[in-house]
């Protein structure tokens, strides 16, 4: 399995594309510039299977419809944020942008910690709320990587001052769901560089003393 990080839009939100040797792929958080994502897929001759959303803040969903329409693929999101895709007030775009950002409703709703299998891709899906109420992280054991959205960053954690944010809940999510993963797990965050569970356990100042 191979993954690539594609920073998108003014906030440089990280979209990720995870692909296998057969050229099938899944797409995480196409936050804007859907054409840029589509161009990469075409260039690499990939076969998209699905869009997986770690959460529905505006900077993570702006390119969803462009990518979904191009490849006719389903979108997955946690049920707590099923209405956020269509509502600019819920996804935060009315507060940060001149025009609201929306996407069509998701095709599949996630609930609870679960195993999600999409053809040859199998993920452990963990509820990791705190940054937003429906935040989830997708752990892909084969790649030794977790797509954590805006829960955990290199040396930092997600902000909790937006709708439904809760600092204590986020810290609990990180400790109980993410830091229990193997230490060598690569953390692929919604913004910034990759990191690892081991590095964040040792160096992240927001997690010390919990």
Automatic annotation (TrEMBL):
Its cofactor is Zn(2+). Residues 12-191 form the Metallo-beta-lactamase domain. SMART domains: Lactamase_B (SM00849). Keywords: Hydrolase, Metal-binding, Zinc. Gene3D superfamilies: Ribonuclease Z/Hydroxyacylglutathione hydrolase-like. CDD domains: metallo-hydrolase-like_MBL-fold. This is MBL fold metallo-hydrolase. It comes from Metabacillus arenae.
């Amino acid at each position: 399995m191979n993954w690539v990080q594609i920073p998108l839009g003014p906030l440089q939100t990280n979209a990720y594309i995870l692909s296998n040797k057969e050229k099938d792929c899944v797409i995480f958080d196409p936050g804007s510039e859907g054409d840029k994502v589509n161009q990469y897929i075409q260039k690499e001759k990939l076969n998209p299977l699905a869009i997986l959303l770690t959460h529905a803040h505006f900077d993570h969903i702006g390119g969803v419809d462009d990518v979904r329409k191009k490849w006719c693929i389903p979108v997955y999101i946690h049920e707590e944020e099923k209405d956020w895709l269509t509502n600019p007030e819920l996804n935060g775009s009315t507060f940060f942008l001149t025009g609201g950002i929306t996407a069509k409703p998701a095709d599949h709703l996630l609930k609870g910690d679960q195993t999600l299998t999409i053809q040859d891709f199998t993920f452990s899906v963990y509820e990791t709320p705190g940054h937003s109420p429906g935040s989830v992280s997708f752990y892909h054991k084969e790649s030794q990587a977790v797509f954590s959205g805006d829960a955990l960053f290199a040396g930092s954690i997600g902000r909790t001052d937006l709708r439904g944010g809760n600092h204590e809940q986020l810290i609990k999510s990180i400790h109980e769901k993410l830091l229990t993963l193997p230490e060598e797990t690569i953390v692929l965050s919604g913004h910034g560089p990759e990191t690892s569970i081991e590095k964040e356990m040792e160096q992240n100042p927001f997690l010390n003393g919990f």
